[in-house]
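Below sits the subject:

***
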Amino acid sequence: MSLDQWSAVDHYISELLVQEDPALQDALEESRRAGLPPISVSPAQGKLLHLLARVTGCRSILEIGTLGGYSTIWLARALPADGRLVTLEIDPRHAEVARGNLDRAGVADRVEIRVGAAADSLDGLHGEGTGPFDLVFIDADKPGNPGYFGWALRLTRPGSLIVVDNVVRNGTVVDDTSDDPTVLGTRRVLEMMAAEPRVSVTAVQTVGSKGYDGFALALVVPG
């Protein structure tokens, strides 16, 4: 198996089952034109996030890591008309691209982009008494994942879902000798999730156009 074959299957799945519309395709293209890194979730992964939000009946979502707003659009479209999504982005230029993409997708009215270091924004949300959120999607800098998971627990309730992206990292997550900060952050957040009695957790490996990776799912349970 190769990346080419994984990508071909991703394309087949997207064409047959996901069926992106122009607003989603334009979001990726605008992000590319603006020079943003090509690290958005794949169409199939975006649809998965959308379905998870619908299955759990989300009315409020927190996203840590906006980039160009591609996953934000998928998540926002799962919300009811009076739903709310708060997304955190450290880079003002990325946030500007995301605002345009969200507006063209017709979901800007239910999305708030907060610009700045995620830790500061999360502290601000907690201080304001914002939440609890029904779903938290963590897809930002990997060394920050342990801290983001800690905040996600503070900002959710039993029944909420926490999704952490990129937890396999091409298999390097199993290397306990690695000094790569992204691997260390990933291993630490998984260890935290495993030890946390307030969540029930699993992780799933994935292959596709984004290579070999995976995500963790944590259901918040009564502690």
Summary: Residues 3-164 form a domain with the Rossmann fold fold (CATH 3.40.50.150). The chain has a mean pLDDT of 97. The longest helix spans residues 3-18.
